[in-house]
Amino acid sequence: MRCPNCGSRFNKGLLACKYCGTTIKQIEEASHSAVVQAKEDYEPEKIVYSSIWPNDISRNNAFWLCMLCGIFGAHNFYTKRYLKATIGLVIWMLGISLFWLLMALMLAGEMYYEFIDTVLYGGGVPAVFLVVAFLMWMWDFFKIVTKTYKVPVVLKD
Ligand SMILES: [Zn+2]
Q1: Do 126 and 102 meet the contact criterion of CB atoms below 8 Å apart?
Q2: In this structure, are residues 126 and 95 in contact, taking their beta carbons and an 8 Å threshold?
Q3: What's the 24 CA to ligand 1 centre distance in angstroms?
Q4: Considering the domain boundaries, does residue 8 fall inside one?
Q5: Rounded to the nearest whole angstrom, what is the distance from the C-alpha of residue 8 to the centroid of ligand 1?
Q6: In the chain, N or C: fewer CB atoms in 10 Å?
């Protein structure tokens, strides 16, 4: 595993990270709910990303949220990874919106035909957005299943 505090590799046999002194106990007893407070207090330096999930957040819930509505970033909102969640959601919405916009334009008549032709067949822009969003979703799902997805936590002193 990797130390959530400094990112250096350390095996679980050790009780503490030999680079920064973070202990296994600290990581196991870290708090996910304290992330909210740290954000409110503008203390982002307190937040670290850990692949070991503390008890106040459920990997099971994240798994189901990801499986059922992961394309909307539900699991990322749940784990309070808001930036990641928002980026994925915006890309997905852009793809969907462009897709329907093109459909509407196509139905509206021939005057847009050239424009549609350029975007749909020339660039495939909506398809690119949708594929990127889909891959981001699948990547997160893979990470949750393989226990490599990281949650923000606040370590105990
Ligand atoms: Zn460390």
Answers
A1: yes
A2: yes
A3: 10
A4: no
A5: 6
A6: C
Residue owning tokens 């749909």 = 120
109 in helix, strand or coil? coil
Q: Is residue 20 part of a domain?
A: no
Using a CB cutoff of 5 Å, list residues around ligand 1, an ion: 3, 5-6, 17, 19-20, 22
Residue 17 belongs to a domain: no
pTM of the model: 0.83
What Rg do the C-alpha atoms of the chain give, in angstroms? 21
SS3 4: coil
Helix pair 59-69, 125-145: axis angle to 10 deg: 160
User: What's the number of domains the chain is made of?
Assistant: 1
* Ligand 1 centroid from CA 153, angstroms: 14
Distance 39 CA to ligand 1 centre (A): 22
Neighbours of 113 (CB within 10 A): 11
Give the tens place of pLDDT for each residue, 83-92: 999 999 999 9
pLDDT of 110 higher than 80: no
Q: Answer whether residue 18 is part of any domain.
A: no
Range of the domain at 149: 31-154
